[in-house]
Fold:
Amino acid sequence: MKKIFFFSFLIYFTSSLCAQNQVLTIHPLKPESGDTVTVTYIGDLAKPDTEISYFFNYMGENRFKNEIIPSEFQNNKITGRFKLPDTVLYVSIKITNGKEFDNNRDKGYGFNVYENGKPKKGTFFTQGAVSLYNKYFFNAKVDTLKAIQLMEKEYQLHPDLKESTLPIYLSTLKLDKSKEAEAVKLATEYYNKILETGKNDNFTERIVETIVGRDHQKRDSLINEVIKKHPKGKAALRKQYIDFYFMAMYLPDSALTRYNSIVENFSDIEPEMRTQLTHSLITTYRGLLDYDNFEKHISKVNDPSFLAREYNEIAWKMATKDKDMDLAKKYSEKSLLNVDKMMEVKKPETTRIIFLRNKANYLDTYAYILNKLGDTQGAVDNEVKSAELFNWENLGANENVVQYLVNNKQFEDALSKSENFIKDKYGSAKMDSLYKVAYIALNGDDTGLHQALENLKNAGNLSYIEELKKKMISMPAPDFSLKDDEGNTVRLSDFKGSVVILDFWASWCGPCIASFPAMLKAMNELKGEDVVFLFINTQEYDNSDEKRLEAISKTLDDKFADFRVLIDEKNNDQFLVGNLYNVKAIPVKFFIDKQGTLRYSSTGFESEEKLVKELKALVNVLK
Structure:
């Protein structure tokens, strides 16, 4: 819709992990490529609803394959089997029931791969590299020192691996504060060799990130030096590809020129990037609504996830422009067929949830097309399926259900559903309007309409406030002192006695900027209330105060003149107040009551109407 990644006592490690504690065991104990491995688990989560997954980890960063292990539960144990492919170097095992994880007391479960009875070349390095993703794999802590030790053990056994894996090692080394300076020094030496010889310039980006961290201006400058000196190297190819990738999505008219430049100037393109280039080329033709070339290239792709997305996107664009609606319907149906193919393969629960949400979006597109084609009953049926997959919690899908019911003259169902949505906190201006249409169609006039709608909206507001209260927390809001964009010192504790809303944002953050009109509207509607809005600029790429202030000024034009902007202090790559409030993603808003207690937080931005409603309701509760 609008829308791959030991110590000398390896045997001790493996047996203590998989045999001696008798929680998770593997057979054979020293598995080799081509072996069928049997995994047996008898831990606390050995229950019928628990899934065991493998992560096949390969040499190189972020190269892995994740699948659920076919298994059976019997006699309080789970047993599963899978075959090791040829190139896998380390296998991680995830055990979860969807809510809880058995992560072996934060150590994780996994095993090294052998060859002729000896640890396979690269297995220790890979183990160390993938351990940095323990939180993602098993919700476990990361032991950076152990990861470094495993990588260094690999270098002792196989010194020839060092050159090709050094960038990953150096970035890992930098994670240990005591080794940060050493990592930067070694990375700088590596960068200078790349600049001089062009050898291993495919590592340029990673090496530069180790040197300068998140300083994007310095990063780009160092990368551009390599590209300028070696214009047909891997670094230059990667930059051109990234440019092409974004052009394909946003500037399709210019993208083909960049694609032709890549094909003409770079002959040594790895298969993986060739696939990515093909995908971006398809995206380009989709953006141009060039059906012949779109179909010519997409017919060679067999990735159902990509196919589902691209068919949906072109169908949506065609429908919104009223272009060849019958072909748009055909593409939308292909999108749904491919998302169903994705659902046929058993996946981890979190992945299935993503697939289901995607399907909900694709059904929404299909319903929109059917409605335009005059098949209003088909539109109703498919939008209901979409709303059901959203658990009836998506305002847009709910509105569309009622809209298509009205279009199909099913006024009784339209009235009933709109009533339920409005009183169950899913009201909106559009839902109110649809309710009025259905009401008048059934009653002949608007007698009693105003009072009936007011009663529903009052019930909906109460329901919404109760829902917000259930999500509220109570903890002291961390105090801080920051400079504002005019150089004045502002302390949070100065505003005790008022409701305070902290809005963390950055000039590069699209959703942050998109939320500003809604924030301004809420501020205007809350004038006279004892509420303070503080907009904390954080996670900016530029280091200097002058450049940050310039970016802020450029972003906040005159219509946002009432915003009071505070400048989050930066120490190396860390933003101090952002860390205090554990800010992981922006935009994020924190709501603090008059006693200085942190009561609520919300992340992201969906719509102006929803944000204004949330802000006003929370201020009403907290004041």
